[in-house]
Amino acid sequence: MSPHMLLISLLSLIFLDKVWCQPDCSFQNLLQSLDLTSASKVRPVRNWKNKSIVTIDMTLYTIVDMDMSMQTATTFVWLYMAWRDEYISWNPDDFCGITELFVNSDYFWKPDLYIYEMTEDEDKSPQIPYYLLHDNGKITNAMPLRIISTCNMDIFKFPFDNQTCKLSFGSYVYTVSDIVMWPKSNSSVVNQNAQNVFASKDEWVLQSVAVYNTTYKSMDVEYSQVIYSIYIKRVPVVYVLNLIIPACFLVFLDIASMFIHNCENRLDFKITVILGFSVMLLILNALLPNSDNTPMLGIFFCICMAMMVLSIIGTVGTSYMTATDPSISNSQVPVWVKILILKHLARIMFFKKDSAKEELVTPVAADNDPENAKISEATEDVLDEKRPLENNSNVKKEVKLLKRILLEILRIHRKLVLDLQQTDATSEWSLVAQIVDRLILVLYFITVTLVFMIMLCVWTI
Length: 461
Ligand SMILES: *[C@@H]1O[C@H](CO)[C@@H](O)[C@H](O)[C@H]1NC(C)=O
Ligand SMILES: *[C@@H]1O[C@H](CO)[C@@H](O)[C@H](O)[C@H]1NC(C)=O
Fold this sequence. Notes:
This protein is of the alpha+beta class and 461 residues long. It has helices at residues 3-21, 27-34, 187-197, 237-256, 263-287, 296-321, 326-329, 335-348, 353-360, 370-389, 393-460; strands at residues 52-67, 72-84, 100-103, 113-115, 131-134, 138-150, 162-171, 179-183, 204-218, 221-234. Helix 6 (296-321) packs antiparallel against helix 11. Residues 354-367 have low confidence and may be disordered. The structure holds 2-acetamido-2-deoxy-beta-D-glucopyranose (NAG) (2 copies).
């Protein structure tokens, strides 16, 4: 071997040695040495009695939707989760100081995180399947989640209501002796984080978020849970402008229509108003769930509707009583109606008393008029007295004529009295109608005002 060759081979050895000694600083090298294909597929603890502690943290990003009729809330959250794998660890000094490694792997164990309130698994959450491995075996995972969960809403104060929605995170299969859920931050930090990022695009504003951990017992088995309580408040402006104010306007309109004197016109008007009001009821119905707890607003609407119907019935009655139909106007007002309505109710309703009293005086029937009878008798007596004195046929004729005229006058008088009686009955009926009308108006106004006051009280409490 020539010295030349020896030199070259020496040099190449040195060179190669240098190459071999250069440490491999790639993530690939670390991943290969971790050998995740044989990593633990069961809970990664060296002693089975060891508990795995899963730390989670949730930041509420936004409330996408609150469905009142389905009683569900759609929220968008950022979730952080951490646990320890006792089989994964490395010395950073052996791998160029790598302390963390992002992997996209299905080979190691992950806790089965379950949200207890979730109702739909139509997972529209963005998929970010990366896990961060730490050299001490800690594995963390952060992901955004779109959660559709049940939220028991109390809508009694709708639309001035506050709601509390809970999100309970826990394992579905591992009991509390296997997995312990633990919140990473306390309530004040979680709340602050949520307030910082919360994007309100909907009708809800975030009040606060609180967190606590608890155990949930189901058939003698306990599961560890971390529960986030989200307190939100509805922005009522839309409902006030689109539902409550128009409804109040319609009610006022209906009350005002009680002052229309023509009953037929009033009926037409009232029917139109009640139609408009039922549209409002339809809108409200579409918003609310079919639960047994009814909002105060619904009760108010219902009472308003009832009063509208009552006032329509009252108007029909009034129009019947004041009708020009002779079959009604001929009949006398019954005595009990006279006492009940014309006497007592008129006083309660501050109705003009003199007019009421005047109507109470019943006109005397023509047939039993003693004065009439007296006059006719007297005249006949006078005529009889004169008869024997005058035997003239002319005089007889005159007397006959006078008698006839007298009879005619009496008939006319009777007719006049009857007519008067009739108009009296009519005006009495119309007075009854007026009093009933006013009673309904007062009742209507008082009821609606009272219920409205109660509703305001409920809302402000
Ligand atoms: C888990 O088990 C190992 C071995 O028995 C023990 O050294 C370790 O302290 C345990 N860890 C916990 C968190 O109990
Ligand atoms: C919550 O945690 C933060 C930071 O960890 C701390 O400063 C604060 O005092 C804690 N608040 C409560 C109420 O424990």
